């Protein structure tokens, strides 16, 4: 089941109308929700967290990484290894040319908070870990310090590039990913 199907199924489980979800999401009409649920409209990754909150679930559930609609509520900050999390966050930031400022801006957190994460002074909320996982295609458990694969392998496209490259060979897709990394490296 893909992202759009999960949004629709979760909305229906909650007995919520498209109009009610549109209102919660700040859309002007239910037709936007109808287009999203049918896959006609794509949604940016930044909106996945908002959909999860409106649908009383987690981004991990909506992305299809777990079938548990309340995954985040079962995990506590005590289950996050501060030291390993800080090392892995620094690794991710380095790989993606992120600074505490750029990452803070994209997560809507202060640079000081990101800095506290990177020195192991603080651990983030589970929802922040899920957003980081979505942003960088990471396994949330890996980010939390568990010995699991770093990336989640999925055949489900969840980004614009994935949708645009779904009929390319694996080698061609790798070239697209390398080009995206090159473009990101040119930012200043």
From TrEMBL:
Gene3D superfamilies, sorted: lambda repressor-like DNA-binding domains
The keyword Magnesium belongs to this UniProt entry's keyword annotation: no
Cited InterPro entries: Cro/C1-type_HTH, Lambda_DNA-bd_dom_sf
Superkingdom: Bacteria
CDD domains: HTH_XRE
GO molecular function annotations of the record: DNA binding
UniProt keyword DNA-binding, yes or no: yes
PANTHER family found in the cross-reference section: HTH CRO_C1-TYPE DOMAIN-CONTAINING PROTEIN (PTHR40661:SF1), PTHR40661
Domain HTH cro/C1-type residue range list: 7-62, 89-143
Protein name according to UniProt: Helix-turn-helix transcriptional regulator
This protein's UniProt keywords: DNA-binding, Transcription, Transcription regulation
